[in-house]
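FW: tagging you since you asked about this chain on Friday. Here's the raw sequence from the shared folder, copied in full. Didn't touch anything.
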Amino acid sequence: MGHTEYKFERFIQPQFPIYASVQSGREVLVENHHHSTAEIMQVLEGRVKMLVGTVYRECEMGDIVFIPPSTVHEVISLTKNASIRGISFELSLIQIEDLQLEFSQLFHRSQRLQYVINASMEGYNTLCSYVDNIFAVYGSFSAGAKIQIVSNLLLIMSQLIQLFSLEVSAHDKNYRKLRAVLNYVEEHYAEKIQISELSEIIHVCDDRLIRLFKEVTGETPIEYIMNLRIEAAIKLLSTTELSIADIADQTGFGSATYMTRVFKQKLSTTPGKYRH
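HL: got it, structure written out here
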């Protein structure tokens, strides 16, 4: 895997920040990168391995993946015929002040592992039709086309909220119980954190805390904290000139040697390669 880059999307009209494309015919369909835009990605043919944040998932033909803003992602072909299509857009494009839409609930890291929609899920065909509608008019940018694009993006977001919003999540009760712990971890991930310390916050035993984490985030507390550190380190490597040792210290790894070992284990690369 190559180094991670911050990517500026190639908007045809900067004042209308959306970019749609189809990728095929390569082993690496999408290079490892992150950007300020949200993205909807669909596998058109074959199978791919997709990195979202610090988690790899295999996706089949038809699968749709939502990638929140500022999330590292990469797509690698697993079959020769693999192809994908993607729509990147700035959230400003669909922000309607009078509606007071709050998309941040959708983007909480604890829900990230769930952002895959397949043909067996309710609303899948409807979601596909919204994506089809955007690709059908993308590129003309007439007034009518822009209205269709924005309306379909809003419909997509509405569908995603119905599937993934913490308010309607099947794990909502557990999330509410764990929320204080998640907030604490996000503020203190760069410090040494003991499981017992987290358990005390919500007055449960360590085993119960670990089960709650797995149910809500798909990760153990240790995995969750480590992945927060990796994501923080990636952003500092991409956007600052701090030394690897300083970044390791600021993100809780403690040493450049340990951070390098974790990067190799989790991402099959080294921090230095992100900076090459």
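FW: Residues 143-164 form the longest helix (22 residues).
HL: agreed, and Confidence is low (pLDDT under 50) at residues 1-8.
FW: great, closing this out.
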